[in-house]
Amino acid sequence: MTKHVLVVGDGVMGRCTAYFAARKGHRVTVVERNAPDHDGCSFHNAGMVSPSHIIPLASPGMIAYALKTIWNPESPFWLKPRLDPDLISWGLLFHRASTKARVERAAPLLRDLNLESRRLFEELARGAGESYGLITNGTLMLCETPKGLDSERHEAEHAQRIGVEAKVLSAREVEELEPDISLTTIGGVHYPQDAQVVPAKFMSFMGEKLREAGVETLFSTKVTGWSRKNGAIAAVRTSAGEIAADEFVVAGGSWSPEVVRDLDIRLPLQAGKGYSLTLKSPKAMPRRGLIFREARLAVTPMMGTLRIGGTMEIAGFDERVNPARVRGIIKSATRVLTDFVPADFEGIEPWMGLRPLSPDGLPYVGKFARFPNLWAATGHAMLGLSLGPITGKLMAEMLSGEPPSIPTQLLAPDRYS
Ligand SMILES: Cc1cc2nc3c(=O)[nH]c(=O)nc-3n(C[C@H](O)[C@H](O)[C@H](O)COP(=O)(O)OP(=O)(O)OC[C@H]3O[C@@H](n4cnc5c(N)ncnc54)[C@H](O)[C@@H]3O)c2cc1C
User: Fold this and answer.
1) How would you class 19 by CB atoms within 10 Å of its CB: exposed for 0-12, middle for 13-18, buried for 19 or more?
2) Fewer C-beta within 10 Å: the chain N or C terminus?
3) Would you write out the chain's pLDDT as a tens digit for each of its 417 residues?
4) Which residue's CA is minimally distant from atom 15 of ligand 1?
5) What are the φ/ψ torsions at residue 278 (nearest 5 degrees)?
6) Which atom of ligand 1 is nearest to the CA of 386?
7) CA of 253 relative to ligand 1 center, distance in Å
């Protein structure tokens, strides 16, 4: 039976959910508070499609790392200390989730989601040619210290154990794979199943697909509340009036808790600010995406440009650019990419985005138990682009009353209720 599906949010989750739902024959309306030329987390991120990322952000050692780096204004991680009950409860849940047992449970699911999503990026690109710059020769995780390399090797063994391809490389082997750029590294791991895309191009491509499929997007329309009838959601209240539908999907990124606030739903989520800097005519280019473990930098070739992304600032909805963090990125980038000097970054306007972070590092994908027709597709943290297509596919299956092709129990949106 076809339905009218209303999706809140025009980020990568909104567009992918709308696309796959429309492909199933549903009538889809997307509601976005910003204008058609809006930016946001989904547009200028690092573009990594990451089957290698089997370990969620909440993992053993993360809290110790955060406490160590928190005092340095240029460090890649920062949490603004504040007496905010939502942040305190999120922090406690994060702490509780950062165990080996939780990581072991999450890893196979993240593998399945990421591998299927990567396949979907390729399938979509088949009809799209070069339009979103898909690169499919993997990612290199690079290390500067023996301790870092040891941990990376350990993670590579974990990946291999659960069927993700990974090859540990010496510094010389790294150089053979990346002969066109000078790198500060003592070795690393090649994850050949990883890929990269140009996120803004992918978003435009999906936007075009939505228009072709007849999906209506209502821009400059903010969702402000909900109308209920007989225990179900009847309509969303918006700045442009009420809109009724059969099914409602919350894909509001970091703002999702606010979107469902008047329904008394608890959806723990913090915004994790990150920055990217894009060199328009880089002096040197890698052949694939690079991630520098200690520097916590992602470096991505994007159709002749080079993007450098990093930092995780948990500081609420502060959307200002913090110059100390940007200085930190440039300092680290010129240390690990030795063809570049700080002057190469002069005049580049830093971009920032707010990643939606769930406390256990797993997204919220599925139906809220309290309502028969309210769904979430949010909370994907550092994997939102990577998991966009699979999230859209799973949502479309569930919205159509089909069992999801990958089990979603661990992703239940009300797992903290
Ligand atoms: C520096 C950086 C690098 C990153 N690199 C990668 C990477 O390499 N690979 C990867 O997979 N991920 C990466 N990410 C993460 C990824 O960008 C996010 O996980 C993803 O974009 C989140 O998408 P979303 O659709 O959930 O949210 P968003 O893109 O934030 O979209 C949510 C939308 O909902 C709208 N909205 C909110 N509230 C309302 C309302 N009340 N009414 C109407 N509309 C509303 C917003 O305006 C917004 O357009 C990176 C992020 C950053 C910051």
Assistant:
1) buried
2) N
3) 899 999 999 999 999 999 999 999 999 999 999 999 999 999 999 999 999 999 988 888 888 877 777 777 777 788 887 889 999 999 999 999 999 999 999 999 999 999 999 999 999 998 777 789 999 999 999 999 999 999 999 999 999 999 999 999 999 999 999 999 999 999 999 999 999 999 999 999 999 999 999 999 999 999 999 999 999 999 999 999 999 999 999 999 999 999 999 999 999 999 999 999 999 999 999 999 999 999 999 999 999 999 999 999 998 999 999 999 999 999 999 999 999 999 999 999 999 999 999 999 999 999 999 999 999 999 999 999 999 999 999 999 999 999 999 999 999 999 998
4) 382
5) -115, 120
6) 11
7) 5
Backbone angle region of 347, left / alpha / beta, with phi > 0 → left and psi within -120 to 50 → alpha: left
CB atoms within 10 A of CB 180: 10
How many Å apart are CA 357 and CA 71, to the nearest integer? 21
12-23 and 199-212 helices, crossing angle to 10°: 30
CA dist 386 → 16, 98, 381 (Å): 11, 22, 10
For residue 287, the CA-to-ligand 1 centroid distance in Å is 26
Q: How many CB atoms neighbour CB 176 within 10 A?
A: 9
Dist. CA 16–CA 11, nearest whole Å: 9
Question: Ligand 1: residues within 6 Å at CB?
Answer: 8-14, 31-34, 38, 40-42, 45-48, 222-223, 251-255, 259, 274-276, 298, 309, 353, 355-356, 378, 380-386
Strands 305-314 and 297-302, by their bridges, are antiparallel
196 Cα to the center of ligand 1, angstroms: 17
Ligand 1, atom 50, lies closest to the CA of 45
Given the CA of residue 351, which atom of ligand 1 is nearest to it? 1
Structure tokens at 302: 């994007």
How is residue 89 written in tokens? 């409860």
Centre of ligand 1 to C-alpha 394, Å, is 18
Q: Rounded to a whole number, what is the distance in angstroms from the first to the last CA of the chain? A: 31
User: What is the atom index within ligand 1 of the atom nearest the CA of 273?
Assistant: 53
The label of the residue with tokens 């769904």 reads: 375
CA of 44 to the centre of ligand 1 (A): 10
Ligand 1: centre distance to CA 369 (Å) = 24
Torsion of CA 219, 222, 352, 16, to 10 degrees: -60
